[in-house]
Structures
1.
Amino acid sequence: EDQVTQSPEALRLQEGESSSLNCSYTVSGLRGLFWYRQDPGKGPEFLFTLYSAGEEKEKERLKATLTKKESFLHITAPKPEDSATYLCAVQGTGYALNFGKGTSLLVTP
Amino acid sequence: DAGVTQSPTHLIKTRGQQVTLRCSPISGHKSVSWYQQVLGQGPQFIFQYYEKEERGRGNFPDRFSARQFPNYSSELNVNALLLGDSALYLCASSLADTDTQYFGPGTRLTVL
């Protein structure tokens, strides 16, 4: 059974203080690993798709990396508007996305 | 281009009632998936449809059903509502069944 574990559950950073969020996974036949951002009461907003170990993708202050067992979402010099819950999901041989519980990020000025 | 749209935005029902939630995918997308998200958890997969056929079903009771129409929009039906059905119901669309899924704003269902 596919499993996704995200850590930490919550993270508080000062503006400009870089950090990383972790997503550990077990899946049979990885089709893709996905990162989403979710604001309270809203639907998840797509950030990245990673398909194979060694792949990296960047968007503004965010960079996602993938190994065979985990993915990291690196946040460089975060701003208060980066505060949100970050969700990681894997798609295996089925069609469903299996999500972790998310990391709640708070960036203070 | 418009994103995924869902209606209604909010819904309040009482136990035992039935509810229908609606979703319109991004133009050109042929696959729609439904997820349930309770507070503090990640979304849980309910159904996926592609080209009007069910491609996958999550671990939900038969009270939950869905369908996809020829224009690729979709409905999720939940019968005999329970208090535990209170959640944010999310619809996601993708070009095909294995492509990146883009989510709508969700429907907040409260069961009293």
2.
Amino acid sequence: EADIYQTPRYLVIGTGKKITLECSQTMGHDKMYWYQQDPGMELHLIHYSYGVNSTEKGDLSSESTVSRIRTEHFPLTLESARPSHTSQYLCASSDRAYGYTFGSGTRLTVV
Amino acid sequence: AQSVTQLDSQVPVFEEAPVELRCNYSSSVSVYLFWYVQYPNQGLQLLLKYLSGSTLVKGINGFEAEFNKSQTSFHLRKPSVHISDTAEYFCAVSDDGGATNKLIFGTGTLLAVQP
């Protein structure tokens, strides 16, 4: 059963469009994360949050932005999508050191 | 900074054979270690984790891993694989033992089980 939900699962969108990838979790976890996964499968942390109104940039520079207004919700926004943004985006949440729970991912294609 | 190395990008194996997926980490502090599995078009699922205590950790689907501090390794093993085990496997280390809980992932190993 999924306790963390990502929508949409697949998105094909034109260059220049604004998009928001949704991520919600029902576990009450304070910490949430966004990873970008390359076609070669490597995972790169692009954003993370320790709680409401707390967001930080990750290890990989990204043109996307995030917000954390509610504990359960951690959306990622691209103001102007480009083909270089084509990737899979994975959202995760965690509670201390018990490991992450991942969503199913959003596969974004910008044409 | 901590890092994780998965030396094998792909491991082909026949069904019912044993398999070992290798993972080495670098860290100067206590670590938490994890193995995740990713099936095609899915997110990552936690297989097992080492936080403390026994160095042999058992996980789901018959997998186990052994924490070896002297060799800084956390290799994943399964005595007999099935076709359904075909997936990408990621080793990960906690960034600082829990304070921020950022995970550093390896580059992944594709386990390809052949009939």
3.
Amino acid sequence: GQQVMQIPQYQHVQEGEDFTTYCNSSTTLSNIQWYKQRPGGHPVFLIQLVKSGEVKKQKRLTFQFGEAKKNSSLHITATQTTDVGTYFCAGQTGNQFYFGTGTSLTVIP
Amino acid sequence: DAGVTQSPTHLIKTRGQQVTLRCSPISGHKSVSWYQQVLGQGPQFIFQYYEKEERGRGNFPDRFSARQFPNYSSELNVNALLLGDSALYLCASSLYSGQTNEQFFGPGTRLTVL
């Protein structure tokens, strides 16, 4: 069945270092969304990518959708303590959303 | 404007019981989706409803059912509860179905099955 895997599962970085999480789907996706979930909170939408090879930037965050629309990445430049949380990708196939396994980011001050 | 609201916030049930969870979407949103999130894992898609019709169903047993009302609010029902049903149940609303758009999540209902 459909699977969306993310690596790494956990990442600890010093404040100011960069961070990247990778998302891989077993099947082609129509689009992909990224969410951030703080501990004890609910997922909050960050961005949506639709086109093959699409790259979008939000301040220090860069999102990329692979050419084959089966993988995606989120890169954070110069992490801050406010970046702490779990980052999930969510791929859509038909009317179903498949969330990735998530990457938990810890930023050490 | 109010965000997505869910009730109750917490619920404790015993095995075999039935539970109903409720969700009110953001005003103007016609699509509601339900997710199950087990601790330490990503949300798992259960259902999507749009304009009161089921538009998507995840890989969950028939013990799980849902409906959407004319005011676009939604209920998720789970029958014959199992210990493994213990999880955070999230509701998300969005403007459309099909064409992806931003999903706004509610705070969730924490279900504990004893």
4.
Amino acid sequence: SQKIEQNSEALNIQEGKTDTLTCNYTNYSPAYLEWYRQDPGRGPVFLLLIRENEKEKRKERLKVTFDTTLKQSLFHITASQPADSATYLCALDGSSNTGKLIFGQGTTLQVKP
Amino acid sequence: IAGITQAPTSQILAAGRRMTLRCTQDMRHNAMYWYRQDLGLGLRLIHYSNTAGTTGKGEVPDGYSVSRANTDDFPLTLASAVPSQTSVYFCASSSGSSYNEQFFGPGTRLTVL
């Protein structure tokens, strides 16, 4: 069956540290994968998109990798800040580049000062 | 510029009643989407529209209908609400159907009793 999975447990890290969030998928062949941030009571906000032929994408303190062999994307936040505390969602192109995204459940990150 | 708006913000509805959730975007985006978000299940696509005049079914379309009479509006209708439709509903839009970020509205919290 098709699945997309993220760490279900909340992650707690200290301010200034780097953390890595994992997104694994099975039985999909996505043309691209996206990461979103969601704060409580709000809609998701787009962060990064990485295509299947890209190994890595960076934006400020964020870095995303995409390994189509391992069927995995990793999301890194460096020099984390309390303002980075949120739920992070990965989403993959679920159907031949049609824009129909399949979302993971999200991983909640708490950065403590 | 408002971006994407949803109404109402929240609603309590008796089972069996008809309800329309409204979604409007002012970005002239071609594609629009409706998701529901439930604890532990993440965001799931209900219906989508790649352009005005066309709609398609997502992962969980049963019990819901949509229309796309123009570019800006994409209402979601529950013809006869049931308690399992209690959820937070998010509308989203994107400029095209592929390799594009999605912009999300603030959500509608719906409770069906």
